[in-house]
Each structure stands twice: as C-alpha cells, then as structure tokens.
From TrEMBL:
Organism: Lichenibacterium minor
Listed SUPFAM superfamilies: S-adenosyl-L-methionine-dependent methyltransferases
EC number: 2.1.1.72
The entry's keywords: Methyltransferase, S-adenosyl-L-methionine, Transferase
Classification of source organism: Bacteria, Pseudomonadati, Pseudomonadota, Alphaproteobacteria, Hyphomicrobiales
S-adenosyl-L-methionine among keywords: yes
Swiss-Prot/TrEMBL catalytic activity: a 2'-deoxyadenosine in DNA + S-adenosyl-L-methionine = an N(6)-methyl-2'-deoxyadenosine in DNA + S-adenosyl-L-homocysteine + H(+)
Enzyme class: transferase
InterPro entries cross-referenced by the UniProt entry: DNA_methylase_N6_adenine_CS (IPR002052), MeTrfase_D12 (IPR012327), SAM-dependent_MTases_sf (IPR029063)
Name assigned to this protein: site-specific DNA-methyltransferase (adenine-specific)
Example of a GO MF term: site-specific DNA-methyltransferase (adenine-specific) activity
Pfam families per the UniProt record, alphabetical: MethyltransfD12 (PF02086)
Length: 144
C-alpha cells in the first residue's frame, strides 16, 4: 500500500497499523477463496492443501518480523505521515528481544506509548492449549 500512496495525490496525515504478531500465516485461511476468485488450478502443498504461491508476510516470521516493522515505519515516515501502531508484548518482535518503540524512534521524532491494555485474547491454536490467554496490547503514536 505504501508504494501506491507514494505515487498518489492522497497523503494521509495518520496511518493505523495492526500487523500480524504470531507465526500464523493468515493467508492459509483464505486460500480456497483466492482460488475461487482467480478461477485457476494452482499447485497445492501441505496438509491444508495450500497454494504454493500464497502470500506470506514477514511479520509472521520471527527472524524477519523486526525488519518488517522497520520497513513499514520507514515507508510511512517517508510519506510524511504519522503512525499509530498496535502491538502486543508477546509478539514476535518482542520475542526477538527487540522493542518496537526503538524501531519507530529510528524514523520518527517523537514516539509515545499511549496505552497498554490487558485483555484475554482468543487463539487459533486452541487444540494446542488454552483457547484464551492474557495479552498486553500496546498502542504507540509515532509522529514527525
């Protein structure tokens, strides 16, 4: 979306982002709908018979999650937009030992954690453990 905004007359003053923070690739939930919409017969793989060409976000890979946030923050900053970021303290970026606030500080003059909210969060992997677990969600505001 950022490349499209760079080439557009639309310049948002604020962008809200709530990127994926677990290793669940959300595209696996939509592969059937994508195949119906594209009306094709793609190569399939795995137990779920997923498209081999399905989108995979770097936010859902522990080793690339911090770099993905860095690229997102850089792109939004280059647009001249401020960023509101929602991210939980149990997300992959924190699991790598990286603080999202430090990444945002590389691209914005002022970064504040506006809110921390504790709540129970439903999980996709309920068969692997409890269906809900405590989460601390943080809301950051990064501005120029």
């Amino acid at each position: 979306m950022i490349p499209e905004l760079k080439n557009s007359s639309i310049k948002p003053s604020v962008i809200y982002a709530d990127p994926p923070y677990t290793d669940d690739q959300y595209s696996r939930f939509y592969h059937l709908f994508e195949t119906i919409a594209l009306y094709d017969t793609p190569q399939l793989s795995g137990h779920g018979r997923y498209r081999t060409d399905r989108f995979r976000t770097p936010f859902s890979v522990k080793s690339t999650s911090a770099e993905a946030l860095n690229a997102l923050a850089s792109g939004i900053s280059d647009l001249g937009s401020d960023l509101v970021l929602s991210y939980p303290t149990n997300g992959l970026i924190y699991q790598r030992g990286v603080d999202p606030e430090k990444i945002l500080s590389l691209h914005f003059e002022k970064v504040d954690c506006l809110s921390t909210i504790e709540h129970s969060h439903s999980t996709f992997g309920a068969s692997k453990g409890p269906s809900k677990h405590a989460v601390v969600e943080q809301l950051f505001f990064a501005r120029h």
